[in-house]
Amino acid sequence: MSARDRAEIADLMARYLLAMDYHDADAYAACFTEHGVLDYAMGRLEGRAAIAAEARVFKDKIAAVFKDWQGRPAKLRHLVHQKALRIEGDRAWHTGLWWEMTNGGPEGSVATPSFGTYEDELARIDGRWLFARRKIFNEFLPGRQSGPGNPVQALATGA
């Protein structure tokens, strides 16, 4: 595993999160391979076109859930931490903790209403790392939790 691979994968994570938070559906979908899979709280999507279509309506879906202190749609900003990686040639696996901030606290202050883990399979296509599969676990939603075990153990063993 090279430092360059780690940096390029970290760049992918940043591009993905910024595209999501700033509602850039095309940039969001471009983080996935052509036949990439997104498995998240609102469903399972397969293919870049399906992911882009869902990203175009994601803003309205989220606005129905997260509100600011005045009842307006909250601004969301996502972060990813504790990025554990396994890289083998042009394939990689990632497990990371994510959380999100909103302006939904009292008088617009920061609130952290949600968190979870990412479980990813990545592929290097034409020199760029992309998500082949991203599963998002949401610790606050029944049925979407990551479970009691350390998720890095599966990453290390390839399970």
CATH overall fold name: Nuclear Transport Factor 2, Chain: A
Helix content: 25-40%
CATH class (first level) name? Alpha Beta
Q: Which structural class best describes the helix and strand composition?
A: alpha+beta
Low-confidence stretches: none
Give a description of the structure.
The protein is α+β, with helices and mostly antiparallel strands and 159 residues long. The chain has a single domain (3-157), classed as Roll (Nuclear Transport Factor 2, Chain: A), CATH 3.10.450.50. 31% of the residues lie in helices and 40% in strands. The chain is built from four helices and six strands; from the N terminus they run ααββαββββα. It has helices spanning 3-21, 25-29, 48-65, 151-157; strands spanning 32-40, 43-46, 76-88, 91-102, 111-125, 128-138. The protein has a six-stranded mixed sheet with strand order 2-1-6-5-4-3, with helices on both faces. A hairpin with a 2-residue loop joins β5 and β6. It is globular. The two termini are 19 Å apart. The model has no long low-confidence stretch (mean pLDDT 92).
Short characterization:
With about 160 residues, this protein is α+β, with helices and mostly antiparallel strands. It contains four helices and six strands, in the order H-H-E-E-H-E-E-E-E-H.
Defining key terms:
Nuclear Transport Factor 2, Chain: A; six-stranded mixed sheet
What's the arrangement of secondary structure elements?
Elements: H1 3-21, H2 25-29, E1 32-40, E2 43-46, H3 48-65, E3 76-88, E4 91-102, E5 111-125, E6 128-138, H4 151-157
Parallel strand pairs: 1-6
Antiparallel strand pairs: 1-2, 3-4, 4-5, 5-6
